[in-house]
Write a structure and sequence with these properties.
Blueprint lengths: L13 H9 L5 H5 L5 E3 L14 E8 L4 E5 L3 E10 L2 E8 L4 H4 L5 E9 L4 E9 L9 E3 L8 H15 L9 H7 L4 H9 L4 H33 L9 H10 L6 H15 L5 E6 L5 H13 L4 E6 L2 H14 L6 E4 L5 H12 L5 E5 L12 E7 L6 H9 L5 E6 L5 H7 L4 E5 L10 E5 L5 H12 L3 E5 L7 H19 L5 E4 L5 H12 L5 E4 L12 E6 L7 H8 L10 E5 L5 H12 L3 H12 L7 H4 L13 H16 L2 H4 L4 H9 L1 H8 L1
Parallel strand pairs: 5-7, 9-14, 9-15, 10-12, 10-13, 11-12, 13-14, 16-21, 17-19, 17-20, 18-19, 20-21
Antiparallel strand pairs: 1-8, 2-4, 2-6, 3-4, 4-5, 6-7
Helix pairs in contact: 6-7, 7-22, 7-25, 9-10, 19-20
The structure holds adenosine-5'-diphosphate and magnesium ion (MG).
The site of adenosine-5'-diphosphate has 14 residues, from α10.
Protein name: ATP-dependent DNA helicase RecG
Organism: Halobacillus amylolyticus
Pfam family, one: RecG_wedge
Length: about 675
Amino acid sequence: MLNQSISEVKGIGEKLQAHLHELGLFTIEDLLFYFPYRYDTYEIKPLTELVHNEKATIEGVLTSEPSINFYGKKKSRLTMTLQVEQFAVKAVMFNRSFAKKQLNKGDTITATGKWDQHRLQITVSQFKKGEAKSQDPIQPVYTLKESVTLLTLRKVIKAALEEYADEVEEILPEETMLTYKLPDRKQALHQMHYPESPLMLKHAKRRFIYEEFLLFQLKMQLLRKLHRESTKGNAQNYDNDRLTDFVQTLPFELTGAQKRSLAEILKDMKSPYRMNRLLQGDVGSGKTAVAAIGLYASITTGKQGALMVPTEILADQHYHSLKEMFAGRANVVLLTGSVKGKKRKEILRSIIDHEVDIIVGTHALIQDEVDFNNLGFVIVDEQHRFGVKQRRTLRDKGLDPDVLFMTATPIPRTLAITAFGDMDVSVIDEMPAGRKPIDTYWIKGEMTNRVLAFIQKAVEGGHQAYVICPLIEESDQLDIQNAVDLYHQIASVYEPNISVGLMHGRLHNDEKEEVMKCFAENELQVLVSTTVVEVGVNVPNATVMVIHDAERFGLSQLHQLRGRVGRGSEQSYCILLADPKGDVGKERMRIMTETNDGFELSEQDLKLRGPGDFFGRKQSGLPEFKVGDMVHDYRALETARQDAAEIIENDSLIKDERFKALRDIIEQDEHVNGEILD
Ligand code: ADP
Ligand code: MG
């Protein structure tokens, strides 16, 4: 049985079992389907063709007995000389003193390891006695944690394959495999670990990619169907006159794209099914405006609405703008983590008593202590941080509101529709009229006097500027240090004539708010900041955005940052300070200077970065796959989507025995399971 514990597999004792658990491997099935991320082929190349500092395999004859040095506790270094071609190559092995006994002068050995071209030296990670036969199998390389070695993992996976692979059953219908010429599951499994040839491997991968995508799409589309069927009866029959009246008070005419999206949202609201919709649009395209209209529609039915955003700064901003927008029409309240004590109690009471109509806050809004009276509409800004679990929390409170997700990560439309299988998607792909495109410049290197003078000029013209600090990868601490240094540097140039502010993630919330408030009120003219200003912040008077180390940001993030300016009627500028080393980096800077259109940008980024590295994938909330790559294997994903649609539509998943195996897997999925049980 494949769902037995890995401890059943030959060679897995208690200790190893625990280590394998760390890798997420619990059952025999987990082990069998732990696929390599790459493969080693022991191809012997002439020494002159080896690449310095890269992995290489060499074959040679030992010209001396290995010598060994011990140092520290349990540490050793084994050194030997190999005759390879006409060269004497030094081979070094660490902490493998046992190998000394196995190796003797005159032996032929094959060693794999890191190659040092200058010293003609190899640091051996793997070796075997004897020649490297070219028919040696392609060897799998797995993702590891320190506690498990590659050899161990290979051994136990091989053991599992030998003992249990026969139990692996086909899950795809025969017709499907015929249509797409896919190998059967058992065969493909063997080929994934020990491919007989690159071609066989390709087909095996193709099979598992399709299988993975099909399961994903079936799950998404089934969930969508279950959602719909489970929520009959929550039609919101909003008051059209009041809504029209409200829209007319807005100081602008909606764009065509806004009108289209709004119509889609209102249709969902009126329908007896619960809305589960993603509203996509570039920064400043007017998503919030559209969402707010939806919110008001719900208010006219006597319900409450909530807006959830990722940060307190944003919550604060939205609170103020909604309050202004709904003045005299609805009561708006702000609830974040920093609202405490008596005030908090009072707000919570006013929510449950329905004295307030609209609640703005961070995602903490759905915490246990918050009880809504009659929640009809929820807007979630930045979709990725709000998952199935939160939705479940709402439902557990007996709430089944229409939910609108907003995201400013422009994902190419085709990709979005395919990737968010359980959501409907609306796209605002048009900017309000009268926006001046932001002029973007790319300057090589550091912040110069020229840039400082440029900022000064903008400030003297009554405007404001952001300066985004260099980004140090994975080091919050250093990022902040950078921000502080840069702040002092800039302040020393500008002050006292120009006030400079500093913003970073370690400031307390009230400090952050204070800084943002000062900036919004133009008491600060220049704001030095880490990327915390990335999302949503709206100060229309800011017209200059300077980004240090721009090459370290993804296109999407640069675009988000740039979106902080160009929000008013004045001409805005974005200055990218960057010294990209590679062509891709240069290309990215060029693209930034050439387009202001987030969708265009995302298409370009897609092409540029290629598979496995699509910008902001984690940020965007796009699903992650084990074998398949959504971008690279886009066609397979689309095929799977269509196939899944047909299967779900015809109810084949439930009725047709050929889909039984797929059905069984999907029914075990916790999300589907939860949905069925609910
Ligand atoms: P997003 O949420 O997509 O970033 P917002 O809804 O916050 O965009 O809109 C950005 C700014 O543009 C706001 O100041 C808003 O009042 C304004 N705005 C929204 N829609 C329009 C429109 N159709 N015409 C002009 N200005 C608009
Ligand atoms: Mg509805």
